[in-house]
Amino acid sequence: MPRRRPPWVIRIARERIDILFQLADKEFLKHPERSHRYVELARRISKKYNLRIPRKWKRRFCKSCYRFLKPGYNCRIRLSKGKIHYHCLECGRIMRFPYIREKKIRRRNKIEYHTLKKRADEKIPISNNSTDRESRNQ
Ligand SMILES: [Zn+2]
Questions:
Q1: pTM, rounded to two decimals
Q2: Residue 11's domain spans which residues?
Q3: Separation of 49 CA from ligand 1 center, angstroms?
Q4: Of 15, 36, 51, 118, which is most buried with the most CB atoms under 10 A?
């Protein structure tokens, strides 16, 4: 019979996964072998407690050799045909992810930007010109 895990156990497991990845990121330049070990430990926790690796860290390790990936150091990222290619330079494996979500966000931002701009143009500001100019330049 499976034991029910109290919620605090799950919470701590999640925290540990996050901490391990943070450490992996921090230690990578000095001790890359430690980073790889941290990924291993985080994956072990995630498997044991049946937790997902958070979205933030999901793409920071290779799906083939499970080493920690730091873009620009042991990982090459390229865009091609609507997909992001993560090239692991440790084992040569290429992971591909579609970036529809990012595209959607960008499209939405674009629409919002234009509607906001339209509104701003309709209301002609008379005073506080300096702040208005600053916000428009951003
Ligand atoms: Zn790899």
A1: 0.71
A2: 7-120
A3: 24
A4: 36
The span from the CA of 102 to the CA of 75, in Å, is 20
Q: How far is ligand 1, taken at its centre, from the CA of residue 130, in Å?
A: 52
CA of 36 from ligand 1 middle (Å) equals 11
Full strand arrangement of the beta sheet holding 94-98:
75-80, 83-88, 94-98
Q: Which residues are annotated as a binding site?
A: 62, 65, 88, 91
Query: To which residue do tokens 């873009």 refer?
Result: 71
CATH of the domain at 79: 1.20.5.420
The Å distance, Cα 63 to ligand 1 centre, comes to: 7
Ligand 1 geometric centre to CA of 62 (Å)? 5
- Of 111, 35, 22, 126, whose CA–CA distance to 73 is shortest? 35
Comparing 95 with 4, which gets the higher pLDDT?
95
Q: What is the pLDDT of residues 53-99, one digit of tens each?
A: 999 999 999 999 999 999 999 999 999 888 999 999 999 999 999 88
User: Does 138 reside within a domain?
Assistant: no
Q: What is the tally of structural domains in the chain?
A: 1
Annotated binding site for Zn(2+): 62, 65, 88, 91
The count of other CB atoms within 10 Å of the CB of residue 26 is: 13
